[in-house]
């Protein structure tokens, strides 16, 4: 509730139109098909403590959202900066003129990860909003995630596209892009 207005105010207060920043909206999830949506951060924290909400994908893909630093978010009252980490894929609000999603990554796999890498390569600040949140509701698996899980060919193709993306980053950003390739190889 009120996320749209909060985002509009944050955009103005943080001078987003004049600044290269990605505003991160922390993501949570429920395993219940019915949920009374929390009306405030305090309500959300209570639901989190009671176990009716969880940090997003903590049990299957913690690397995707862990850099958000949920422990810090619990008590934050001001936006705070986080650093890029491998496989980080937060939900963000950015200016219209930001880099677009790489069209190689359609379906399931690496669309948000590659986008955040590109934003980081262009030196966007990654700012977590202290009073924003979203909740993912359970749903049936998509056709594309089913293909990813069941097809070695799909996963192999995705790996090839990831390698091409890394090469393109290296060409565009030079030595600054080495951290992405180094991170990928150390995983």
Automatic annotation (TrEMBL):
Subcellular location, principal: membrane
Keyword Transferase attached: yes
GO molecular function term, any single one: metal ion binding
GO process terms (BP): protein O-linked glycosylation via mannose
Keywords of this entry: Glycoprotein, Glycosyltransferase, Membrane, Metal-binding, Signal-anchor, Transferase, Transmembrane, Transmembrane helix
PANTHER family, sorted: GLYCOSYLTRANSFERASE-RELATED, XYLOSYL- AND GLUCURONYLTRANSFERASE LARGE2
Name of this chain's protein: LARG2 glucuronyltransferase
Species per Swiss-Prot/TrEMBL record: Lanius ludovicianus
